[in-house]
Amino acid sequence: MNDSERPSPQGAPSVVRWLLFIHQLPPKPDYLRVKVRRRLRGIGAVAIKQTVYLLPNTGDALEDFHWLRQEIESEGGNAMIAEAEFVEGLSDEEVEAMLESQVGDPQDPDSEPHTRADRVTPGQTWVTREDVYVDRIASAWLIRRFIDPAANFKFVPARGYKRRSSELRFDMFEAEYTHVGDNCTFQTLSRKFAVNDRAVTAIGEIVHDIDCKDESFGRPETAGIASLIRGIADAHEDDSARIERGSALLDDLYASFHKRRK
Question: How far is CA 51 from the centre of its chain?
Fold first, then answer.
């Protein structure tokens, strides 16, 4: 019998649809609360209570919760994982809507509800610094895939460039879209344009850790993606070629993350 099945009164298996992650953190270190909250958001979990998070009952979700539980306990906290069915107070349909929308955790002060998304005219010219690397490559992929499929990219020197009124700048000095607070440019774009997609959030965490070099999220894929991006940059001096090759890599990474949540 599958671990997520229980015999029903009629003898047919009943699938337990949800996993709950219930945790308690120590008062110190201060960074742990933010780190755990970001990790839960990154794996697509939704908060149903202040310290109770939910994912669909899949092998991948159980593994994600398992590793987070170990990390919390190594820092002096405690956590438990449970299979759950809702009888009253919350329906399966409401849970599914929460997972689909991912509009921000009301218990998370770092989370911004996506209620006023930026909009652009298709076919904009998007300007960034030449010699593109991880954040600019990933941001260009995000722009073309989710924001402006007809986008044109222009690469300029770090100094001496004067913006035209029709252009939008990203990941450069005085850009319309760049690092904001702890967010890299990719994360800023995904928030500003309300790209509410768990796979995009996961990619943003990888891009953040490579670009900012602060290991805020510690995803297991980060080191491998960093090596591949380095290889793309070493093999191609042309910025358009770097974006083309990087976009193919990110398409595959996105498909991998997206499939895990099916």
Answer: 20
Note whether 137 and 246 are same-domain residues: yes
Give the integer Cα–Cα distance in Å for 112 and 110: 7
Judge contact between 158 and 184, C-beta under 8 A: no
State the Rg of the chain over Cα.
20
Task: Give the integer Cα–Cα distance in Å for 169 and 34.
Answer: 30
pLDDT digits (tens, 9 = 90+) for 230-256: 999 999 999 999 999 999 999 999 999
* 47 three-class SS: strand
Cβ atoms of residues 234 and 202 within 8 Å? no
Does the reported pTM lie above 0.85?
A: no
pLDDT digits (tens, 9 = 90+) for 81-112: 999 999 888 888 888 888 876 544 434 444 44
Kindly state the tokens that stand for 42. 């990154």
Same domain, 84 and 178: no
CATH code at position 69: 3.30.70.240
Contact predicate 57/257, CB 8 Å: no
In a domain, 112, yes or no: no
Q: Which domain holds residue 188?
A: 125-260
3-state secondary structure of 49: strand
